[in-house]
Design goal:
By secondary structure, the chain is α+β, with helices and mostly antiparallel strands. It contains seven helices and nine strands.
């Protein structure tokens, strides 16, 4: 199946993991010890639920993509990869109550953020002058701020550099050429912006996963 894999972005509302019994079930079936330990390192229960939910969604999405062995190793840039399925690539993100996972046959980056008030100081630090000008010209500045942010995050995650690279060193406006070409697929879901970044110009599918499926019910 992985030889014919197309890029899919899965999303799921994981707020129901606030139920202690469901949280415990999720922790028990999570296939990665390192992810389980990461969940427990979070101080706030909301962050624990998000981290757990993103891990469960990743496991679900990878199995749906044909992965029968979810053993993970880490690449030189720290990005996780499947040992037994080098042809399946994935990336995860979470915000508020929403977890997302992008799966593809090539490197991919994904980010999700809840709409919130535009932070001028953050924008001035992370956006180029042209991006700032574009953002301020939009009718809904707050959503424009988030749209630029998820584009930058997804691009950096696709590259595998994360915020080690200065986000103000490149522009993600549509008419701008990036150093490494990339395309962006974007959706608005439940007051969130989701963005998948791919090195190819392609059609990316957005699919909703049910939390019951993630928990094996």
């Amino acid at each position: 199946m992985e030889d014919h894999l197309t890029t899919i972005c899965w999303y799921c509302d994981v707020s129901i993991l606030a139920n202690p019994a469901l949280f415990s079930r999720g922790m028990a079936i999570l296939p990665w010890d390192a992810r389980r330990e990461k969940v427990l390192r979070y101080h706030f229960e909301k962050d624990q639920r998000l981290c757990l939910g993103a891990g469960l969604l990743a496991a679900y999405a990878l199995r749906r993509s044909g992965a029968d062995d979810l053993g993970i190793h880490y690449l030189e840039n720290g990005k996780p990869a499947l040992r037994a399925h080098p042809g399946i690539h994935f990336n995860i993100s979470h915000s508020d109550a929403l977890a997302v996972c992008a799966v593809s046959d090539h490197t991919v980056g994904v980010d999700v953020e809840r709409w919130q008030r535009a932070e001028s100081r953050v924008a001035e630090m992370c956006f180029t002058p042209d991006e700032l000008k574009w953002m301020k010209a939009q009718r809904r500045t707050d959503q424009a701020f988030i749209r630029l942010w998820v584009r930058k995050e997804s691009y950096l995650k696709m590259m595998g550099t994360g915020l080690l690279q200065d986000p103000s060193s490149f522009s993600v406006l549509p008419e701008t050429s990036l150093e490494i070409p990339a395309s962006f697929s974007e959706w608005d879901v439940h007051d969130h912006s989701i963005c998948v970044c791919s090195p190819l110009s392609e059609s990316v599918s957005l699919l909703r996963a049910d939390i019951a499926d993630l928990l094996g019910f």
